[in-house]
User: Fold this.
Amino acid sequence: MAIDIHTRAVQPPQMDWPQNSAVPPLYQTAAYTYKSLEQVDRIFQGTDDGYTYTRAGNPTTRAFADLIASLEEGEQGAIAASGMGAILVAVLALEESPGPLLMAREIYGGSLGLVRRVLEPLGYRLVWVDTHAPEACLGIMRENPGGVLILESISNPLGRVCALDTLIESAHRSGVKVIVDNTFATPYHVRPLRFGADLVVHSVTKFIAGHSDLILGAIVGKADIMKTVDSLINLMGVTPDPYAAWLGMRGARTLALRMERASDNAMTLATVLKDHPALAQVNYPGLTRHPDYNVAKRILNGGFGAIFGLSLKGGRTAAEEVIRRLTIVPFVPSLGDVMTTISHPQVASHRELTQAEQERVAIDPGVLRVSVGIENVRDLIEDFTNALSGLVLG
Assistant:
């Protein structure tokens, strides 16, 4: 029986909790007690179930990992201390020895910084790919067999959507493994493992947790590769705090409900603003004028996500003015909250990119990223319309 994601999200993992707790309890502990040396030995050997040290595992963290694996329809999940930790672990799990890392040109600046500052000095090699130019992308993948392609299901901040159905298949035919950062789409809109992704990663901090009150990452994949993932999380010490995992699980149970509302709000708001005279462009994959509209219709389910980009005609000065004029929507250099927020990619999320790299993906001083929340959309329309109209009249 196929169970809808709204149902799967609210169902906590079925485990035998003490006192028959209806929801997974918080195990805020670093260590565990045992009754005998034999018991400890069996747990370390893996012949008995149990926990030895929270760096290597924790019941709360395991319950959350199982929930995210269920949402992504994966065999197994793991929780890391942050989204960046999740990406690092995913890369090392798939590419243990230095090799080519093929990165989508719209990639999040933090992911690029990780490659340039940490992985390249270790011998890994950055290779840029345009995932929206199939023939050129295929050529680069064929030139780099054994490499890892790192891309986002929906890109930050202009909402480019990758054709996961054809791209992942082409990568595997070329001997390239694939990591999909599914932070923006979330499993509500797309489950990349269905298309053959080797690993899916998330910044849980964003939409999955949904309240801007924790830092966590997640990785989901097949059980065999996830053994390596679990080992790396333990050995590298990128282990989550149990309380953050407990909060994340609490937030995740409303993921489908929140994404449904936020995506509807984003579609409405983007449609209202798309022809505003102060804007050169509204970049939202749900708009027919977006370059990936047809791909998004084919790949995404239940809407087009909660993020869109605004390109202001007045550049950075106009961007500053809009931020100042907004009264409901705050400037927050993050995203995925229940409240709508705005950010400036050139200053915040994409500052790791060179000017030429920013220009190549149309990130200029006039671009603002909007992360739409679950407010009454009429209030959001009024706030943005007033901010932009004031800019035009000024």
Summary: DSSP finds 15 helices and eleven strands in the chain. The radius of gyration is 21 Å. The domain at 256-393 is CATH 3.90.1150.10 (Aspartate Aminotransferase, domain 1). The first helix runs from residue 5 to 10.
